[in-house]
Design a protein that fits this description.
alpha/beta, six-stranded mixed beta sheet, three-stranded mixed beta sheet, 11 helices, globular
């Protein structure tokens, strides 16, 4: 099975890892290899102390045109009953699977969806900030991936679409849960109900992306520059800030304030804070080590 992802460390700046969607011949459609590789790659980047920020970008003409219907349609229809993969990536099922009851098939399909969801959630759960650099099409599953990132930037040719209603299904990999935390309810409803295409200008207007750049090269440079800006700061403070922001969900204001007070009670003794004070007094840039 060919790899769907590639990782480039350091070439965009110290402390930055670029996660490449690398199926340009399919416009980066998301197939079984992508969902198998993504959790492992994100776990590796999460555990790597030299990585302070991650950029998610794509090779070829598009960020992603969504799920590979040819490859994943069969898997989802059959449920998560894989016993191995053939050389061409085809899924195999046991003979017993052919005689499952309708209820068992439904349960198996649910397991398949949960497995795909978990792969996308691995991006959202990364303790390091993740910046999506979106060019060309960002459709269906591409939107699930983009909305799992912390920050989204786009090139002028970017097209966004929550396409699932046009395929007679309900989007189920996270975009309906994460998009409402990014843009207003009316915009969510319009995008999700119609499945329409939204250009980069409109995406910026509604807050889906932070900034739009004239072309892919400028976009990638801007994403690397933003990641570098983040990577130069204290990783303890940046990752702590991401954790505190995530902890706001489901908490009252009082509970969220208590959470951050507890967090800082443990972190204010960091060497990075002492270095920040020294650098301020000595009028020089700080050199943060994450300790």
């Amino acid at each position: 099975m060919s790899r769907a992802l590639g990782v480039d460390r350091g070439s965009s700046g110290a402390g930055i890892a670029t996660l490449w969607l690398d199926r340009p011949d399919t416009r980066n459609s998301l197939g079984p290899a992508f969902f198998d590789e993504l959790p492992a790659v994100m776990a590796e980047l999460s555990a790597d102390s030299t990585v302070r920020a991650v950029v998610v970008a794509a090779k070829g003409q598009s960020f992603s045109v969504g799920l590979d219907v040819k490859e994943l349609g069969t898997v989802l229809a059959a449920g998560d009953r894989r016993v191995g993969s053939e050389g061409d990536g085809a899924e195999r099922t046991t003979n017993a699977d052919e005689h499952l009851s309708p209820a068992a098939r439904v349960a198996a399909t649910r397991r398949s969806v949960l497995r795909l969801q978990a792969a996308i959630t691995a991006v959202a759960d990364c303790p390091k900030p993740v910046v999506a650099a979106v060019h060309g099409h960002c459709i269906g599953g591409g939107m699930d991936l983009a909305t799992a990132c912390d920050i989204r930037l786009a090139s002028a040719d970017a097209i966004f679409s929550v396409r699932e209603t046009r395929m007679a299904i309900v989007a189920d990999l996270g975009v309906l849960q994460r998009l409402p935390r990014i843009v207003g309810a009316g915009h969510v409803a319009e995008l999700a109900f119609t499945g329409k295409d939204v250009d980069a200008r409109r995406a910026k207007e509604i807050g889906l992306v932070n900034e739009v750049y004239p072309d892919r090269d400028t976009l990638l440079h801007a994403a690397a520059s933003l990641a570098q800006e983040i990577a130069l700061l204290s990783p303890l403070a940046v990752q702590g800030t991401k954790s505190v922001l995530a902890a706001n969900d489901g908490r009252t204001l009082a509970q969220a304030l208590e959470y951050v007070a507890t967090w800082n009670a443990g972190m204010l003794a960091s060497e990075d804070l002492a270095e920040a004070v020294r650098a301020f007094l000595e009028k020089r840039p700080p050199r943060f080590t994450g300790t």
